[in-house]
Design a protein that fits this description.
Number of strands: 16
Radius of gyration: 28 Å
CATH architecture of the largest domain: 2-Layer Sandwich
CATH superfamily of the largest domain: Bira Bifunctional Protein, Domain 2
Helix content: 40-55%
Shape: elongated
Strand content: 15-25%
Number of helices: 19
Strand order of the largest sheet: 1-5-6-11-10-9-7-8
Distance between the termini: 47 Å
Length: about 450
């Protein structure tokens, strides 16, 4: 019999792992709410017409498509099958797909529910997304995103607030991070500077891979995409620009003398950095001209967050998008957002062993089951303990004490209470601290106090 398994790029989470993930979700939710964001949810699947064309050519290839219900070949001609044109067949057999991210469904949501929400609309959303990517360390086919977006406001103060949120989330999680920031208008200005404005998408997709594949391969990819050798050479001093943020901006101001778009991007970056300084955001923020973020819907500021103490990809990212709702019939609605990669953050916290000591505990107290005579007394105590807000349980059957203790140890339950004949007669509870091994008779009130304080 074949052993059951799950698809590559997906994961099961056992209870101890799930409570750690919930710790991450709860920390992020708490910060989102503190900044005035409201929760929404959208379906796991969207119409392909909603998703296609929003993520660029490479993103479209990574969409999981869902076969139509019933006879999904009913609209497919024999000639189509013989031709084996995957895109044409997919268009006829699949009307829906699993969401690739939470931002495009959010844009669809805003347009569909525009009469029911108040603008500027600040929403957060924590749900899984799916990408038909090649699974590798830190990259999964199913993973959770934790998004916060503001739509209906052009103010760059929103970008600064998102930087504050990033700082607060990772302070709460005790993870040291750095932020890289750029602006798509600066990238457009660079493309204009080298005379290749029509190649802006090819340029951004290529230079976004600089850290992964190196400068030589990036240049090779740019040449393959049709850029002239002169243009690629002209690009080198720009994407390799070094120095402080102020020095980089000063150099770009000189280069962008003839690019209005580039100058606008620089102004936006300066404004955001000034806000960050005024707000005393405790993050290292670096202007990185190679940061492009491959998603085509970004139009302004873009940012990525890296963990400083763990080798892994970005654990948070986002940016400004001006045209996304326009695709769905609501033009002029600018938005900006960030997305925390919960699965990568989980891996970072695991590698750093940065979870609080009690994160894995779901039960604080277990009552030993001595048999039918003592059970009713134990159940009364159990009811009072739960009513007092303590997570507690009773072992379901009168097994040997050793077995019951092994159960408590396996679940990392810190306290075990015993109420046998002797304890019932004396009106006490025998409380054992599973961490220290200490055991003594206490009153109900003393037991509650120790469990809550312990």
């Amino acid at each position: 019999m074949q052993k059951p398994s799950i698809p590559k790029g997906t994961r099961d989470f056992i209870p101890s792992e799930t409570v750690k993930r919930n710790y991450i979700f709860d920390a992020i939710k708490t910060v989102f709410r503190r900044f005035g964001f409201q929760p929404i949810e959208t379906p796991a699947m969207e119409n392909l017409s909603t998703l296609l064309g929003k993520y660029g050519e490479e993103g479209d290839k990574l969409l999981f498509r869902i076969l139509n219900s019933g006879d999904f070949l009913s609209d497919v001609a024999e000639a189509d099958l013989a031709e084996r044109n995957v895109n044409r067949l997919s268009a006829k057999m699949c009307e829906k797909g699993l969401r690739y991210d939470l931002t495009v469904p959010f844009a669809r949501f805003v347009v569909q529910h525009q009469s029911e929400i108040t603008f500027p609309f600040k929403r957060y959303q924590i749900q899984p997304v799916w990408r038909a990517d090649r699974p590798q360390k830190g990259r999964y086919r199913e993973f959770y995103q934790c998004d916060a977006d503001v739509v209906g406001s052009d103010s760059l103060l929103n970008e600064a607030e998102l930087l504050q949120i990033i700082a607060e989330v990772f302070r709460t999680l005790n993870v040291r991070v750095s932020v890289k920031i750029n602006n798509r208008k600066i990238l457009t200005g660079i493309a204009e500077l080298i005379g290749q404005k029509d190649k802006i998408t090819d340029i951004t997709v290529a230079i976004d891979k600089l850290e992964k594949i190196g400068l030589e391969k990036v240049n090779g990819e740019l040449l393959e995409k049709g850029l002239t050798r002169e243009a690629v050479e002209a690009l080198q001093p720009v994407i390799c620009l070094s120095g402080s943020n102020r020095e980089k901006i000063g150099r770009l101001e000189e280069l962008f003398a003839g690019s209005e778009t580039g100058q606008t991007g620089l102004h936006e970056i300066r404004t955001i950095l000034d806000y960050a300084a005024s707000l005393e955001i405790p993050l290292p923020i670096e202007l990185d001209l190679t940061l492009a973020r491959g998603l085509n819907y970004y139009t302004g500021a873009i940012l990525e967050v890296k963990a400083l103490d763990v080798e892994i990809g970005s654990i948070c990212g986002g940016g400004r998008y001006d045209n996304l709702t326009g695709i769905f019939g609501l033009p002029g609605m600018s938005g900006v957002g960030i997305s925390f990669g919960a699965d990568r953050i989980y891996d970072v916290l695991s590698q750093l062993n940065a979870y609080p000591a009690d994160t894995g505990q779901t039960t604080r107290l277990m009552l030993v089951n001595f048999g039918q005579a003592e059970e009713s007394h134990a159940l009364k105590i159990l009811g009072k303990v739960r009513a007092a807000g303590v997570n507690a349980e009773i072992y379901p059957e009168p097994a040997k004490i050793k077995k019951q203790m092994a159960y408590a140890h396996g679940k990392a339950i810190p306290y075990v209470a015993m109420t046998g004949e002797t304890e019932i007669a004396a009106g006490v509870i025998s409380l054992k601290n599973m961490l220290t091994g200490e055991q003594e008779n206490v009153s109900f009130e003393e037991m509650l106090q120790r469990i809550k304080n312990g």
